Amino acid sequence: MSMVSTELKSGLLAALLADDGFRPEEPKTLEDTQLSQTLVESIICKLLLNIGSMSGRKTAEHICLPFGVVEGILTSMRTRQIITHCGSAPLNDYTYTLTDQGRTRAQAYMHSCAYFGPAPVSLEDYITSVEAQSVRNETPKEEDLKRAFDGLSIEPGLFDRLGPAVNSGAGLFLYGAPGNGKTTLAKRITACYGQEIWIPRTIVEDGQYIKLFDAAFHEAVDQHENSIIKADNFDHRWVKIQRPTVVVGGELTMDSLEIRFDPINNICEAPLQMKSNCGSLLIDDFGRQRMQPQELLNRWIVPLENRVDYLALPNGKKIQVPFEQLIIFSTNLEPSDLTDDAFLRRIPYKIEVEDASPEEFQNLFQIFSKQFGCRCDEDAVNHLIEKHYKPNNRPLRRCQPRDLLSQIRNYCVYKGFPMEMRPEYFDLVVGSYFTVVAGND
């Protein structure tokens, strides 16, 4: 499939604004949407079949197209006796309902595909948006990393190793012992890239609807809070979101990496890597998925090299979509034990997250004591280290200050005591903590 033409890029999709970057412009005509009138009519028919009746403006609002575009389509449908007026509506509008002929047509549309949400965006327009908003267009600096990791205890040496990897957008392995914050680091990395992005709610290609927006992974931004958005109209088929961080762990399967088809409603859902475009995709606990690591690596070896992925539609057609995200593999295992040199070459950064130093361990207690609403007692922490860590050669893991303070809080709540960091409290909770959960990340 060829990339979108220069003319198309400069048509529907405005490129760059100084404050807002990429932003989809409101379509003025049906041609601007890159959709056929038949497609829009089918959505309107299915909407009225399910709702019963609706004003023209409410119909336009529901399918996320301007009333000026929808009004002409409604007029055409009424002329052809697919819909009819069943009342007046404010602002020189009418309430519409299906005729018998329209109901028969709508039922046929529903049988073919049950989708009647926001009008979709063409695959070409989606490709344009990803190219304009890719993380590889961003160049985070040291101050961006410090802002993204604010509130975390990060050693300067780790910053210096993470910075070039984040700046490259080329992907990385975070590896090391459990409990040292690899997952937390990975989740913060996306914030290094700054601004929000626009994604289509739904994409259409070759008559197939692919749902992209997913509230489980995409955090919508209130567009009305932005003064620029108030002043300028935008295409409501798109939604503005925080740059996504898609996190998957042991539940990841090969099916999650392909377009998933609902045979009952004949609607598709985008795969995880597509939902993470222009953000980060974290494969947590890599090596512990139900699939073999080599299966996943073989599936992605070409996309990582070429930055495009090939997906199959339910009708058998292959489509080419961008593979534009920062891939992060977080693992407790050595990367070289999981894969071969060919794949490691495509993930150029391998960063070990080491155990905390005694100074950082103390600093972590300072940070978490504020969250738990108590004073940090350095003597109590020193007692903890000298009595429970050094004699047993226990490593200082970054998750432990938070976990131990959590257990002390629970004990104090149970006893009705004020929350305090006291040596005897550490003595009390250490036994159960290290016996039960030592080694968990």
From TrEMBL:
<dbReference type="InterPro" id="IPR027417">
    <property type="entry name" value="P-loop_NTPase"/>
</dbReference>
<protein>
    <submittedName>
        <fullName>AAA family ATPase</fullName>
    </submittedName>
</protein>
